[in-house]
Automatic annotation (TrEMBL):
It comes from Paraburkholderia lycopersici. It holds the Pfam family Oxygenase-NA. The lineage of its organism: Bacteria, Pseudomonadati, Pseudomonadota, Betaproteobacteria, Burkholderiales. This is Fe2OG dioxygenase domain-containing protein. It comes from the Bacteria. The keyword Oxidoreductase applies.
């Protein structure tokens, strides 16, 4: 599902219809935010991947059976654009996350401000930043997974496509699956350069046939890249151990 909204000259303010976004998240566990980043911002972020001074670690997926490709976790301080986006999105997402937890019977409520939540993470030993850039080449893919990292997990996250489908790369679609007691299904979510997909990290509530609440387990990944190079930024709101 795509959310509608007018982009301003400051895309990090993400001026979207948040009531519609909430409805889509409830129904599907994901929603696309169009044109969160401008092309020049995408190019700037993708170019950071070649640098070492911005990052705390590099992961080669094949070494850990995560798939093929690689990614780098940013170090603090984050690039200013990502810092602003992370802080701009979180206040809209915390009320949704709190309602989901109440529906699922989870006794965790998230504070209104990201810095307060990150302080909770850091007090629990989760001090390492989790925003990252992923890089895929021909034949690369990302296995279905969940980005959990520790005791304190924020249940929504964002992936932003930096590359141009059909120009910079072919294949490499963003894929989500959900599993529940009534079955499983997969969804391919089309993205254009600068689009962000907002999605459930782990699980979401859904209405059962009897009118109660059932738990739906979510996973995400990337299909095989057929050609070219694909870069994506992941914004995760909890930090890791």
């Amino acid at each position: 599902m795509k959310a509608t909204g007018m982009r301003t000259d400051k895309p990090d303010s993400v001026p979207y219809d948040w009531a519609e976004i909430e409805r889509s998240l409830d129904a599907h566990g994901n929603v696309v935010l169009p044109r969160v980043l401008r092309p020049e911002q995408c190019a700037h972020l993708a170019a950071l991947y070649a640098r070492d001074d911005c990052f705390r670690s590099r992961i080669v997926m094949a070494r850990h059976n995560f798939g093929r490709g690689e990614y780098k976790y940013f170090a603090y301080p984050l690039p200013p654009l990502l810092h602003r986006l992370r802080h701009a999105l979180y206040p809209h997402l915390a009320p949704i996350a709190n309602r989901w937890n109440r529906q699922l019977g989870i006794d965790v409520q998230y504070p209104d401000e990201l810095d307060v939540f990150l302080d909770h993470c850091h007090r629990a030993g989760q001090t390492r930043p989790t925003p990252l850039i992923l890089q895929y080449g021909p034949g690369d893919y990302n296995c279905l997974h969940q980005d959990l990292y520790g005791e304190h997990v924020f249940p929504l996250q964002v992936a932003m496509l930096l590359s141009r489908p059909g120009a910079d790369f072919e294949g490499g679609e963003f894929v989500m699956t959900e599993s529940a007691s009534n079955g499983q299904h997969a969804e391919v979510i089309p993205l254009e350069q600068g689009d962000a997909v907002l999605f459930a990290v782990n699980q979401r509530p859904a209405t059962s046939k009897r009118g109660g609440t059932r738990k739906v387990a979510m996973r995400h990944g990337v299909s095989v890249l057929r050609s070219g190079m694909r870069h994506t930024v992941g914004l995760i709101f909890h930090d890791s151990r």
